[in-house]
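Newbie here. two chains, one complex. Structure please?
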Amino acid sequence: MSALLSVENLRVSFPTHRGRVEVVKGVSFELGRERLGIVGESGSGKSMTGRSILKLIHKPGLVTADRMEFDGVDLRSQSEKQMRAIRGARISMVMQDPKFSLNPVMTVGEQIAEALVTHEKLPRREVNERILAMLEAVRINDPTRVAGLYPHEVSGGMGQRVMIAMMLIPSPELLIADEPTSALDVSVQAQVLDIIDDLVTTKGMGLILISHDLNLVSRYCDRILVMNSGVVVEECAAGQLERATHPYTRGLLAAMPVLNEQREELPVLDRTQWAGT
Amino acid sequence: MSLEPQLTAPPAPISPNKRIWGRRASAVAGFVATVFLTFLGLLAITFFIGRVIPIDPVLAVVGDRATNAVYEAARVQMGLDKPLVVQFFHYVVGVFTGDLGQSVSTGRSVAEDISRFFPATLEMATIGIIIGVVIGVPLGVIAASGQGSWVDQIIRVVGLLGYSMPAFWLGLVGLALFYARLRWVGGPGRLDIFYDGLVSPVTGLILIDSLLAGEFDIFWNAINHLILPASVLGFFSLAYIARMTRSFMLDQLNQEFVTTARVKGVPERVVIWRHAFNPIRVQLITVIGLSYAGLLEGSVMIETVFSWPGIGNYLTTALLNADMNAVLGSTLVIGAVFIFINKISDVLYRVLDPRAR
């Protein structure tokens, strides 16, 4: 399988008054048209990894890598203009909280239309048809009405489905989902992830699902990277998570409660067992 | 008790059209009511403050060497012997019939005076705020989108200068340079002397009156005279507006939805103007409205330097002469302008921000 995305020794750093701080310290991975999960706690560098693929880390942040190739294109040497043609059209990203990630003064329909017409010049009528079809694809029942709503008029779950529609309408080949469900109620989390999973599989896209929820990632992904303080500490197939060897992963797994268990107390992570934080 | 379903018809659904019109009508009624009440409150406050301050309007009329009898007669004639509430009632009735009383210092009715002085200020303030907005807003946006760059630094320095230079000094330097030396602009006053009084006042705004009369010479002359004082005023509002725009924009550019726009591959120009600028229009309207209202109050310094017959000068002269009717009248007009501008901003909020609807 030829790799859709290959990243080698990715480093992201930010200057502080005490010198540069590296938040991603040499991450490498390969991705085909499959579903890759990146798991880690807050500050582990998983979101920064996602954003640096789209070159969305701004000055004074600094991104370096030995290799960062998307479908044969060297992302490192792409100009800002060339990146714009890739963003949205070929690599897209679903962000965390629709309350903040949707423009409050544009209707849902306008925002989805913008994602499409930025990359494809289409007649107005066709744009409208594609929007309605896309809203239906993310299981919105009344697409004509919803397209005319403003973000503050839709619920969180619906907002996130709008976000997914907006990011998938130009048919990208890779979708980065950065904690797509952590701002949602548990009851709609599965619904939203099912939609992502469904669309990604039928369109044969690559998916990077960034999350702090081990269970969720192992259910929706083929492969898992576990990150801690900027480095990948574990890489395994989703089904083989129980066989993880790194003390951090083992600690996380042990800290998960199981139904009908005998343990009196859940263990706390013992961070002295590895070099991380 | 019968279990049969009730056969009475459900209440006829109100057609959505009717409901919308009903809501609009009540919104308009509420709008008028708040404007009216705010105005009445303003009227009461200015009136009572005018009566309690230790200025004797009678003395201002009769002079301090008048006999007691003359003094008393004047007091009765001015209605000041009646209880305060009665005086207030008369004043309110007067205001609503367009009568603001007589001015002691000019000898004309206050309403006439204001219709003469206010348009001069209105003209200058309007051109001033237009300069401030048209230049200030883009400068603020440019500064914010290149935060920390040399462009940003220059704009900040210009803003700081605008903030800290005294208006009268800038006016005087402007006159010395552009009028006395370079002869680019007209001197003090609204028109050259030989144009004065040639067009009959319709609106009192010379720019409009001269156009109505088809007198383009006078129009250009008025612009010549107006451009310098309006630019000085405009420079101050420009500095303020650019500063506020910059900080509003910086706030927006850090929002997640701006990142969303970039993820979509939208060009940076669109990111800045459509995604970051559109949401701040509401805040900008507040800032612009307040600056405009401030300019309409009339800047005494600028009006003095440019011999501009505006409301600021009128109000100051009236105050120094204890001409209470003129003071109250001008305060009322300025207050009404504030209310009016605020209400206009409220309406614009609703047009521009779906969340406020």
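Moderator note: Chain B touches chain A through 21 residues (CB under 8 Å). Residues 1-10 of chain B have pLDDT under 50 and may be disordered. Thread marked as resolved.
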